[in-house]
Write a structure and sequence with these properties.
single chain; 370 residues; alpha/beta; twelve-stranded parallel β-sheet; 13 helices; 14 strands; globular; F-box domain-containing protein; LRR_dom_sf
Length: 370
């Protein structure tokens, strides 16, 4: 084979970073291509079945050096619907044994995610503290008790980003166990289907809010919003980026009037997400929250709408009146993202054009982005 300069071969392999088959082929071309190919092949590892867990466990035992390449480690749904009850139990028992062993080889993993497990996430708690993990993602998992989640949380001393959705616990007991100093979180994502009240109370009690600069929170009921209020109030001026999802569960469910972002005086970006249902006549909460904005340094505002109903649900005239106030002179972008629900026959291009026409002053400033 003709000599290929290393910088060119690395460029070729980097270009194929998301093509596993081509990366494997590259690793067979020449031994000098192997390190860069491995870098991409093992950078993101997804274990989706018990068989994949067993195979990766064997690989880590025979080639322990490969664990150093893993930067993102994802474990999801380790059972299949076609399994018998006996096979299912055996598969999960195997996963409980091998996952902690696998993790001991991942010295440089930065992001760890667990989702849709049909077994208590308590099996992961047996993992030794792992100082390299900076991001933890948990989705639709169940802990025996809230204290078990807290134990897992404390096993990542350098954790900076925590993302949770659909995480539950059968018992809210925290447990009187001695725990190390908690990590200093900078970014938190709290999705739907959560016991937000228990979680935010604990975070405030542990003073975890002190370093948080970015928060994304999804609320479905008024109780969800009420649970978030004291947490958001405590964050106050330290918060730089806020994303708020309001999935109102019915046309008579409204955002509590006490909910405000007025205390977030140093926001740089604000993102508001909402469905516009077929029977939705108005979404006054959007303009209400915008009117609460007290951060004169706000640079970016996003409105993300899932549209089945009418655009008139948003008071666009009020939106423009609020955002053209001189105190928002730092505003650089108003991004409006529209997702048309199935059943909405509107033309997306026409919807975008309509929104621009409703915001003439902001459009003339060139800050409206669709």
């Amino acid at each position: 084979m003709p000599n290929v300069p290393p910088e060119l071969s690395d460029y070729i392999i980097d270009f194929l970073h998301n093509d596993p088959a081509s990366l494997k082929a590259c690793s067979l071309v020449h031994r000098s291509w192997v390190p860069t190919a491995r870098l991409h092949i093992f950078e993101n590892v997804n274990l989706l079945t018990p068989r994949m867990c067993a195979s990766f466990d064997r690989l880590m035992e025979t080639s322990t050096h490969l664990g150093a390449y893993v930067k993102e480690f994802n474990v999801a749904k380790l059972t299949t619907t076609g399994m018998s009850a006996q096979d299912r139990t055996a598969a999960l028992a195997m996963a409980e044994r091998v996952l902690p062993r696998i993790f001991t080889h991942l010295a440089y993993v930065r992001a760890f995610s667990v989702s849709c497990l049909d077994v208590d996430v308590a099996m992961i708690i047996s993992l030794a503290p792992h100082p390299s993990v900076e991001e933890l993602v948990l989705e639709y998992c169940q802990f025996p008790a809230f204290g078990d989640f807290v134990d897992l949380f404390h096993s990542f001393p350098r954790l900076r980003t925590l993302s949770m959705r659909g995480v539950t616990w059968r018992d809210t007991e925290l447990g009187a166990r001695a725990r190390p100093e908690p990590p200093r979180l900078q970014s938190v994502v709290l999705g739907k289907d959560m016991d937000t009240a228990t979680l935010t109370r604990w975070m405030l009690a542990e003073s975890l809010h002190r370093d948080i600069e970015s928060l994304s929170v999804a609320c479905v009921t008024e109780d969800n919003v009420i649970a978030v209020e004291p947490f958001l109030e405590a964050l106050g001026p330290s918060l730089r980026d806020l994303e708020f999802h309001w999935f109102c569960s019915g046309m008579y469910v409204t955002l509590p009037s006490s909910f405000t972002i007025e205390g977030c005086t140093r926001l740089r970006s604000l993102s508001l997400h909402s469905p516009v249902a077929f029977d939705c006549c108005a979404l006054p909460w959007v303009t209400t929250l915008l009117s609460h904005l007290s951060s004169e340094g706000i640079e970016s505002i996003s409105l993300k709408l899932r549209l089945l109903g009418d655009l008139n649900a948003i008071d666009w005239e009020a939106v423009e009146k609020i955002l053209t106030d001189p105190k928002f002179k730092s505003l650089r972008t108003l991004a409006v993202q529209v997702l048309l629900w199935q059943g909405n026959n509107d033309d997306l291009a026409e919807v975008k054009s309509d929104i621009r026409a409703r915001l003439p002053q902001l459009e003339s400033k060139g800050i409206v982005r669709m």
